[in-house]
Amino acid sequence: MSVISDNTDGVGSRPQVPAADHTLRILRHLARRPAPVAASALARDLGIPRSTIYHLLATLEEHGFVVHLPQERRWGLGTSAFELAGGYARQEPLARLGRPLLATLVDRLGESAHLAVMSGRDVLYIVEERAARRPALVTEVGVRLPAHLTATGRAMLAALPASQVRALYPDAAAFTERTGHGPTRPSELRSILQAVRSSGYASEDGEVTAAFRSVGVPVQDASGWPVAAAAVTWSAERELDPERAVAALRETATELQRRLRR
């Protein structure tokens, strides 16, 4: 298969790179689908020969951009694709728009807040607003923590398709611990995420740092994809009404979503 075509349509036209074009179209198509897709459907919908589809999918799988679900005989986005999405989201405008909103949230609740994005099976913190006279937390900008243990991670995982969660957490080896608490196998995580979907928010209690609690909600794009999550963390010794914190977080997330979609 030819990689680069020298054909041009006139001054200013660009050389065509079929392999790159097909690869990007595959990733874009998978990103727009609500569930994993069969290779035959990709070939049909994109007008790409099946042999080419299978070769490109194998290469994308090798680099983590897609995952194959053998029981379903379908393909979905992999963790490397999530990292690319997170890399985009970490740049402006998400952090720029989110920082003042989190500052207002901190003033309102008197507790520290943060904004995070998914990066593989981790969350990566991109904004932290610390409340006055509150202790430093582990959620500093640039820190990564296991998504399945954090309120921000659980909020985003609950908003992902179940197939993507299965791809991220296929077995017990995918789970790590920090304080000896938290899910250690896929079935336990599924139960937690179901509770998050039912309540509309995520929580964790001492699973990231002993004696600290967090609640979090997702920040979603127009298609419902979780581009980030906002959370509030406080010492278990302090009295903060979780329902009040969740209500404030939802208002913050809704406003951030509105500003992102302008």
Automatic annotation (TrEMBL):
Stretches assigned to the HTH iclR-type domain: 17-79
SMART domains: HTH_ICLR
Keyword Methyltransferase: no
PROSITE patterns: HTH_ICLR, ICLR_ED
Pfam families linked to this entry: HTH_IclR, IclR_C
InterPro entries: ArsR-like_HTH, GAF-like_dom_sf, HTH_MetabolicPath_Reg, Tscrpt_reg_IclR_C, Tscrpt_reg_IclR_N, WH-like_DNA-bd_sf, WH_DNA-bd_sf
Sorted UniProt keywords: DNA-binding, Transcription, Transcription regulation
Top-level taxonomic group: Bacteria
SUPFAM superfamilies xrefs: GAF domain-like, Winged helix' DNA-binding domain
Positions of the IclR-ED domain: 80-262
Protein name: IclR family transcriptional regulator
Biological source species: Microbacterium istanbulense
